């Protein structure tokens, strides 16, 4: 597929604008590193303008006094617009990120369901009355948090922007979306659709640009009332440090080094397919990637043999090609980083079972490809065993007892997601209760829904996205006490 190089502006106060310094960024297709768009490159002044617009819109009677059910109707309209434009959104996501088109279609469908889910909650955000000593009425109000900043990563732009923007709008906030400088195309399209859905000017703003400049300027702004960040743990710490100076609350979904535990009574064919999908979907560029697989010793050899065989037969190629099994990594820099981890693993003594290299000559040389890679003999002390690689690299290990498997799985600074494979209900619940992760999937993997909370333990983040629980972050609670005497 060819795409005309588009000139795309940033959305500030309901208008599509150029960067204040006139700079743009070339957006590349990672399958060949050819430009597909020119996007305005925001800076600190543009970030400030977006905050000012969001603050003014938040205080406007057109938004402040709106019937909550009308916010819900706008979000329902947005869900329908996402569905109506799903083909375009999916193609943009694939061309910009590199993932296979079928994955992008799934992401867009998930985004539509998210807007729909929170649309239904918009007029159901309730306070409460509280019993107190006589002659008084005491009650609580749930009010919007205010101006919220949404720093969206490059790996799931359309899904993760929708995940936080939908509840923010449902609860009456104004938002500023800061997409990754690498992958802003679907976030800009979402901004266009939100305008068409009827949200007043300034309620939704989209400012692309470098995180070190635009992102940190937004985090440091005293007019910002909340920051939602998804990305690396290292950058999350910087966001927290910056936000702390203004006592701005943060919602963080950070890294993961996620374990599969496959017991001897598992449905082995399904488990093999899910372990494969759990690491090679989106070329492993996922915070919830299952990058560590612990397999019971009695099934280990055959399990790993089949897994390696499947990895070797995966077809690499542009995501837009429907026959592609795994697309490229998002950038040359990411490709080099992952290859560096592979080299470190070999140098540190891990045993390479398959992969580890760029594909051989065959038309993919210009893209950011890496073969699906599997190691065993990986220890927690190795970089392969401890760091979030964020690429198509899996480490496999064997275990003999439940206690051993749980200890191995929990031996990580991260605690985002985990998979358990067993036909024994007791084992499933026991292990799920002992894993130090925020989400456990039993007999499936890579599963989440707009209505189910998603968040991490340890270095994997603070707070929850998705579900009713997420509304707590996007609202403030005010207590009112009235003396009736």
3D structure, described in words:
The radius of gyration is 23 Å and the shape is globular. The protein has a seven-stranded mixed beta sheet, sandwiched between helices. A six-stranded mixed beta sheet has the order 9-8-7-10-11-21, with helices on both faces. Strands 1-5-4 form a three-stranded mixed beta sheet, with helices on one face. It is of the alpha/beta class and 485 residues long. 38% of the residues lie in helices and 21% in strands.
Brief descriptors of the model:
485 residues, alpha/beta, 7-stranded mixed sheet, 6-stranded mixed sheet, 22 strands, globular
Sheet having the most strands: 7 strands, mixed
State the helical fraction: 25-40%
Let me know the number of strands. Answer: 22
User: Number of helical runs?
Assistant: 15
Mean pLDDT: 97
Assess the beta-strand content as a share of residues: 15-25%
Alpha carbon gap, first and last residue: 74 Å
Going by helix content, strand content and strand pairing, the class is: alpha/beta
Radius of gyration: 23 Å
Stretches where pLDDT is under 50 for at least 5 consecutive residues are: none
Major sheet: arrangement of strands: 14-15-16-13-12-18-19
So what's the overall shape?
globular
């Amino acid at each position: 597929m060819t795409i005309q190089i588009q000139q795309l502006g940033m959305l500030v106060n309901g208008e599509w604008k150029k960067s204040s310094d006139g700079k743009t960024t070339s957006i590349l297709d990672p399958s060949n590193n050819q430009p597909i768009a020119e996007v305005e490159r925001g800076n600190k002044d543009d970030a400030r303008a977006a905050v000012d617009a969001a603050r003014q819109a938040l205080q406007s009677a057109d938004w402040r006094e709106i019937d909550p059910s009308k916010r819900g109707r706008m979000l329902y309209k947005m869900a329908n617009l996402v569905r109506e434009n799903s083909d375009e959104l999916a193609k943009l996501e694939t061309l910009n990120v590199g993932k296979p088109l079928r994955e992008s279609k799934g992401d867009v469908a998930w985004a539509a369901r998210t807007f729909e889910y929170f649309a239904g909650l918009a007029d159901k955000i309730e306070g409460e009355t509280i019993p107190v000593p006589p002659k008084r009425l005491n009650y609580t109000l749930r009010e919007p948090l205010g101006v919220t900043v949404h720093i969206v990563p490059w790996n799931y732009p359309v899904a993760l922007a929708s995940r936080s923007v939908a509840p923010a709008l449902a609860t009456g906030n104004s938002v500023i979306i800061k997409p990754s400088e690498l992958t802003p195309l679907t976030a800009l399209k979402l901004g266009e659709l939100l305008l068409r859905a009827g949200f007043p000017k300034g309620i939704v703003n989209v400012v692309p640009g470098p995180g070190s400049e635009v992102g940190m300027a937004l985090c440091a702004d005293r007019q910002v009332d909340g920051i939602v960040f998804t990305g690396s743990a290292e950058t999350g710490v910087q966001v927290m440090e910056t936000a702390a100076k203004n006592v701005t609350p943060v919602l963080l979904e950070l890294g993961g080094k996620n374990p599969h535990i496959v017991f001897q009574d598992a449905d082995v064919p399904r488990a093999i397919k899910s372990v494969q999908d759990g690491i090679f979907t989106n070329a492993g560029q996922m915070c919830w990637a299952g990058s560590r697989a612990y397999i019971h010793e009695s099934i280990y050899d055959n399990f790993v043999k089949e897994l390696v065989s499947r990895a070797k037969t995966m077809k690499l190629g542009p995501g837009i090609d429907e026959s592609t099994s795994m697309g490229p990594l998002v950038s040359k820099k990411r490709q080099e980083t992952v290859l560096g981890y592979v080299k470190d693993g070999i140098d540190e003594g891990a045993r390479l079972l398959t992969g580890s290299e760029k594909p051989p000559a065959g038309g993919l040389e210009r893209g950011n490809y890496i073969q699906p890679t599997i190691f065993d003999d990986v220890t927690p002390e190795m970089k392969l065993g401890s760091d979030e690689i964020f690429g198509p690299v899996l480490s496999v290990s064997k275990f003999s007892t439940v206690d051993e498997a749980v200890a191995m799985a929990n031996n990580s600074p991260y605690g985002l997601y985990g998979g358990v494979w067993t036909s024994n209900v007791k084992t499933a619940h026991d292990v799920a209760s002992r894993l130090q992760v925020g989400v456990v999937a039993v007999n499936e993997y890579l599963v989440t829904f707009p209505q189910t909370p998603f968040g991490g333990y340890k270095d994997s983040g603070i707070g929850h996205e998705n579900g009713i629980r997420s509304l707590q972050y996007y609202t403030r609670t005010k207590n009112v006490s009235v003396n009736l005497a």
